[in-house]
Amino acid sequence: NALQVMPEDVCIVPEKRTEVTTEGGLDVVGQPEKVRDYVAKLHAAGIRVSLFIDADRAQIQAAYDGGARVIELHTGAYADAATPAARQAELAKICDAAAFADGLGITVNAGHGLTIQNVGAIAQIPQIVELNIGHSIVAQAVFLGLPAAIAQMKEAMFRARSGIK
Q1: Cross-strand partners of 108
Q2: For the chain, what are the domain ranges?
Q3: Are 94 and 125 in contact (CB under 8 A)?
Q4: Which residues sit opposite 34 in a β-bridge?
Q5: Taking each helix axis from N to C terminus, what angle separates 135-144 and 146-162, rounded to the nearest 10 degrees?
Q6: pLDDT, tens only, 55-101
Q7: Cβ-proximal residues to 136 (8 Å cutoff; 6+ apart), any chain
Q8: Are 9 and 48 in contact (CB under 8 A)?
Q9: What integer is the mean pLDDT of 46-54?
């Protein structure tokens, strides 16, 4: 429990017993009181709270209404898209969601399934301030070492953000 450990930041994610990894965002719309109460408890303890949610305006509004001022947009559908057209459609949803959240004053993070090959388009979204990438970096670290794998991912993000191909 975060209230026992007292971390600086907490990201609340949905969890199903059968999942190896999170397959979707938290349903804030479907449980607003539960989310609001937990966010309030964490805030009262001085813990910054982020909600891991899908790129959906209703979920973002519910997160805001529930007291969250930081969200992490789930990028899994973008990362797993089977065609370029599907990937573009998912990217458009993420761009819209990031702009909507930013307009509410919410800090926008993103992550899930991002790799060196697909991170560029997400890194270019100006409202996104943090990307959470784990598996891809650790997998690359097996071949390159952790410092080099981190440097490679950071370079890809910085190049995308600066518009360099």
Answers
A1: 71, 128
A2: 2-132
A3: yes
A4: none
A5: 120
A6: 999 999 999 999 999 999 999 999 999 999 999 999 999 999 999 99
A7: 114, 115, 116, 153
A8: yes
A9: 96
The three-state (H, E, C) secondary structure of 139-160, written as one string = HHHHHHCHHHHHHHHHHHHHHH
Retrieve residue 160's tokens: 């995308």
Specify whether the CB–CB gap between 57 and 97 falls below 8 A. Answer: yes
Residue environment code for 26-59, b if the CB has 16+ CB neighbours within 10 A, otherwise e: bebbeeeeebbebbeebeeeebebbbbbbbbeeb
Mean pLDDT of the chain: 93
Neighbours of 83 (CB within 10 A): 8
pLDDT value for 23: 73
Phi, then psi, of 70 in degrees rounded to 5: -140, 135
What pLDDT score was predicted for residue 47? 96
Is residue 18 predicted with pLDDT exceeding 90?
no
Q: Looking at the chain, how many residues does it have?
A: 165
Q: 2-132 domain in CATH 3.20.20.70?
A: yes
Q: How far is CA 119 from CA 49, 58, 76, in A?
A: 24, 25, 12
